[in-house]
Amino acid sequence: MSKLIQKSAYTFSLCLLVLLLATGAFAQGKGKGGGGGRGSGNAGGPPAGRGVDRGHDNASSKSGGRSDDGLNNASAKSKGRSDAGLQRARDANLRRADDDLRNHPGVPRALHTNANDLRAGYQAALLRNPDLSFGNYVAATRLSQNLGSRRPNITRDAILSGLESGRSLGRTLQDLGLSERESKDARRFADDEIKKAKKNK
């Protein structure tokens, strides 16, 4: 009888031990992500559904797109060209200006300057606008001389700034206060003066 009791007690203790071990293992598995807790899935990795470039996305959204706009604007202003490409444009325009000055020595005199000063002024303007043609620089100079006494805001620099922003000569003069008709007449008059100056050797 005592052996039966001992055997039953041993079996009961063994079952109780197995039950306790099983319960502990189940609780531990649930806490470590087996059931979808905090550490489940991609613990330690990036948030689900987002890649390594999420910092760029955040920068764009938090700045209201300004970071993207800054990159686009920088590219737009140089038309996507490298510094070397911009310098090539300046050099090509300056060579054409040299040819124009050599072939038409009367132009500087009509602008009340000399060839060296006119060339130096154009070269400085090319630093701001590599695509500025010599013809537009000469026209801006003459227009400012013709209009400046009556319209002090119409300076050569103001006209060149308009051209740099992509506006035409006519649109720039209208932005500076002339009517469409006044702008057209002023450009025609300056153009006639320049043409006459080119005929003078």
What would you note in describing this structure?
With 201 residues, the chain is mostly helical. The protein has helices at 2-34, 54-62, 66-78, 83-103, 106-110, 115-128, 134-147, 156-164, 169-175, 180-199. Helix 8 packs across helix 9. The longest helix has 33 residues, at 2-34. The termini are far apart. The model is unreliable at 29-76 (pLDDT under 50).
Instruction: Please bin the fraction of helical residues.
Output: over 70%
**Biggest beta sheet attributes:** none
Low-confidence stretches: 29-76
Amino-to-carboxy terminus distance = 141 Å
- List the secondary-structure elements in sequence, H or E: HHHHHHHHHH
Shape: flat
Structural key phrases:
mainly alpha, 201 residues, 0% strand
Walk me through the topology.
Layout: H1 2-34, H2 54-62, H3 66-78, H4 83-103, H5 106-110, H6 115-128, H7 134-147, H8 156-164, H9 169-175, H10 180-199
Helix pairs in contact: 4-6, 7-8, 7-10, 8-9, 9-10
